[in-house]
Amino acid sequence: MKRLQQGALILCAVVLGLVVSSCGNKGKPMSTQMESGQMKDSGEKMAESTTQQSGGGHGEGMAKEDPVPFVRDMEKAALDILSHVKAGRVMDAQNSVSQLSGATDKVLPHITDTNLKDRLSKSVAEIKASVAGSPDVFELEEKIQVLQGDLKQALEKLQSMNG
Which of 64, 79, 80, 137 could form a disulfide with 96 if both were Cys (CB 3.0 to 4.6 A apart)? Predict the structure, then answer.
């Protein structure tokens, strides 16, 4: 019985030691940390590191990647969507829509023409919505033709900007 009491006493001492040692900034309520400025500083550092990792909006990320292959990926994904829908493979079409959306996210930052950027976003959103429901092949063909026209224009502009 005495060993059990000693064990419990040691366990309490360890727990108490952990509680006391962790009573630094972590133990303070969030409002106290905000008032003292400690959270603000760490939040700013985290935001700065995130900005640096993402390219910071200074054009660093754009200069490293050529958007033309992504436009080609969009063209291929659009054709794949149409062929999958015609074959009745809606799940495959939805996977191609995901590829189209991913490529679109990579291309849009490189396009400076806001009108073209908006049309591309709208076309992709309409195709995505069409495939998510019960896709009508003729309606989908029209939407993909519109997208292909916009992609052709985007490709011309991007190629003229790059050289």
Answer: 80
| Helix 114-132, helix 68-86: angle, nearest 10 | 30
Domains and CATH numbers, the chain: 62-162 (1.20.120.290)
Contact (Cβ atoms closer than 8 angstroms) between residue 25 and residue 38: yes
Structure tokens at 117: 């950027």
Residue tagged 């993402």 (tokens): 54
Q: Which two tokens stand for residue 36?
A: 């003292």
Directed axis angle between helix 114-132 and helix 90-107, to 10°?
160
Q: Is 0.70 topped by the overall pTM? A: no
Could you tell me how far CA 152 lies from the centroid of its own chain? 25
Looking up tokens 């995901």, which residue turns up?
Answer: 98
Burial of 115 (0-12, 13-18, 19+ CB in 10 A): exposed
**Three-state SS for 56?**
coil
**Diameter of the chain by CA atoms?**
86
